[in-house]
Design a protein that fits this description.
406 residues, alpha/beta, FAD/NAD(P)-binding domain, five-stranded parallel β-sheet, 26 strands
Length: 406
């Protein structure tokens, strides 16, 4: 049998999941897979990246086993970024000019760190927090600086991960967040306040509602301080930008592929672009216009595309539950369903013990009987039960469901 060629652009977590799943399920060898990886190392667990600074090795973070590397129907090309798509010829042009022909193409280019256009952002001492190489650079800059101040710009999930990493390196860490609270996407005001209290108790200084105006150079020409709106300055010579990500869709416009309104390759619910031979999955995909910044939805997209490639089913991406339960700097937080009570007429039931570092909110339907969502901070033990009850009638009074939150 003559194999068809699938080219996968990108070898992050989602790109690797697609390639590995296709090869494990393609018993008859219908597809030969060429993976064009921008990074010089195979796919690794980016979700657990902070653990690299806590002692785990790059090899321990790797997602790629020897069987995949030895597979004769897998051609993994490291350090080979795609530069252009030639849709008429059905070829991907790499940065060195090599042309790689495809019968099907999956774009899994992921996202890039968002660096706000702050004057001084390119000074030595400024970093992003995305790859193992980024962490190597941060660790090198932190050597011999125990107890010195470091700043993370961004107080969302990624920012708090970065803050935890800097704290683990022995640095006196500040978090600067433009929004009025930490984790503004997931948490409401009450949850954000409790999280800020708990994070502050761990020695991290939190600046919410703070706009960075500039990174000022020190006498040595490196970053020397962070100037905030209002004139206050946080002295530091190590700044980490971790203020979110943007989909990497640079290949779209030159090749005539549509982009979502907020970026990303525009795809339908089957992750297919306007070109029937090209799909996009993961953080770079705007499914019906929406990008998903978590890895779990990316994995579901990969599974749907593999089904289509193998002709098993015309599987659609079913959407994603964006509920999250995390431990950030050792603090439990959870957000699920309609956490911000956006449903018209929704009722909010809150139990808070801010002095004890505990906050819980349930969002109920207008009749008070159906659970629509919620927020937990400081104690997330009730999350599994509450998440299982989403969209269902409550089995008892709301206060009983939160009986363990004291």
């Amino acid at each position: 049998m003559t194999s068809k060629t699938l080219v996968v652009v990108g070898h992050g977590m989602v790109g690797h999941r697609l390639a590995a799943d296709l090869r494990s399920r393609d018993r008859e060898g219908v597809w030969r897979v060429v993976v064009l990886a921008e990074e010089v190392r195979p796919a690794y667990d980016r979700v657990a990246l902070t653990s690299y600074l806590e002692g785990r090795s790059a090899a321990e973070l790797s997602l790629v086993d020897e069987a995949f590397l030895a597979d004769p129907l897998v051609d993994l090309r490291l350090g080979t970024p795609a530069a252009a798509l030639d849709r008429a010829a059905r070829e991907v042009v790499t940065a060195d000019g090599t042309r790689v022909a495809y019968d099907a193409l999956v774009l899994a280019t992921g996202s890039r760190p968002f660096v706000p256009p702050v004057p001084g952002r390119e000074l030595p001492g400024c970093f992003v927090y995305r790859t193992i190489e980024d962490l190597d650079a941060i660790r090198a800059a932190a050597q011999g600086r125990a107890g010195r101040p470091a700043v993370v710009i961004g107080g969302g999930l990624l920012g708090l991960e970065a803050a935890n990493a800097l704290r683990a390196l022995g640095l006196r860490t500040h978090v600067v967040e433009m929004a009025p609270r930490l984790m503004a996407v997931q948490l409401d005001a009450g949850g954000g306040e409790v999280l800020a209290d708990l994070v502050s108790d761990l020695g991290v200084t939190v600046h919410c509602g703070a706009v960075t105006e500039a990174i000022e150079p020190g006498p040595d020409g490196r970053a020397g301080g962070l100037r905030l709106a209002g004139g206050s300055v946080v002295e530091t010579d190590l700044v980490v930008f971790s203020a979110g990500v943007r989909p990497r869709d640079d290949l779209a416009e030159p090749s005539g592929l549509e982009r979502g309104e907020r970026g990303g390759f525009l795809v339908d619910d089957r992750c297919r672009t306007s070109d029937e031979r090209i799909w996009a999955i993961g953080e770079c995909a705007a499914v019906d216009g929406r990008c998903y910044g978590l890895v779990a939805p990316g994995y579901r997209m990969a599974e749907a595309v593999v089904d289509q490639l193998l002709g098993v089913a015309d599987t659609a991406f079913p959407g994603a539950d964006m509920s999250t339960k995390l431990k950030l700097l050792g603090v439990d937080v959870a957000s699920f369903g309609d956490a911000h009570a956006a449903t018209p007429g929704a009722v909010e039931y809150v139990r808070a013990r801010r002095d004890e570092g505990v906050y819980a909110k349930l969002v109920l339907a207008p009749d008070g009987s159906t659970l629509l969502g919620g927020v937990l901070a400081g104690d997330a033990r009730a999350y599994p039960l509450l998440h299982s009850l989403l969209g269902r009638a409550l089995p008892g009074p709301a206060d009983q469901l939160l009986a363990g939150v004291e």
